[in-house]
Specification:
It is a single chain. By secondary structure, the chain is mainly beta. It has one domain. A hairpin with a 5-residue loop joins strand 1 and strand 2. It is globular, with a radius of gyration of 20 Å.
């Protein structure tokens, strides 16, 4: 099998430069560290439908549960929800349903590269410092590896149900 180099496919893994970026929310989910510290993990992607640096780069933001009372900072959550254009006053049947409502929402973020120190080691961090409403609500971002029909206007075709009988199952 032959293999050909194509440097046009090379990716830049350096930190996203400080600045303001239009992003789309790729995923929001609760998670925890190995030590059990719980957080909400926001995964944003710099939009490629707008002329800006570092399109398709991921930016992550975490909201940690407070050790004192085991609750998330409601003000931080509401700031992001408002900037993402979620409906004020909307009620959800579960916290997971609320987190799902962030899916594919556009938002504008301000990025700042900073250093932090932990256990005597210094770390470089790309931090989201501010959330703002988008200037481009008509999202046409194309996700890598997805066909245009899957991402066009962020509407997917409904999944077709499969009919499976007992004879189709080997056990």
């Amino acid at each position: 099998m032959s293999f050909k180099l194509d440097f046009s496919e090379a990716q830049d893994f350096s930190p996203v430069p400080d600045g303001i970026y239009e992003v789309v929310t790729a995923n929001v989910a609760e998670d925890a560290t190995q030590n059990g510290a719980e957080f909400i993990n926001f995964d944003f992607i710099i939009r490629n439908d707008i002329q800006q640096a570092r399109g398709n780069s991921h930016l992550f933001h975490r909201i940690w549960k407070a050790k004192k009372d085991g609750k998330y900072n409601k003000g931080m959550i509401m700031t992001i929800a408002k900037a993402c254009g979620l409906e004020d006053g909307k009620e959800y049947s579960s916290f997971d349903e609320f987190l799902t409502d962030f899916a594919l929402k556009p938002v504008k973020v301000q990025i700042k590269n900073e250093q932090s120190e932990y256990n005597g080691k210094t770390y470089d961090n790309t931090n989201i410092k501010r959330f703002m409403g988008t200037s481009y609500p008509d999202v046409q971002h194309q996700f890598k590896g997805k066909s245009s029909s899957e991402t066009s206007n962020f509407q997917r075709e409904p999944e077709q149900a499969m009919d499976i009988s007992d004879e189709d199952i080997p056990f």
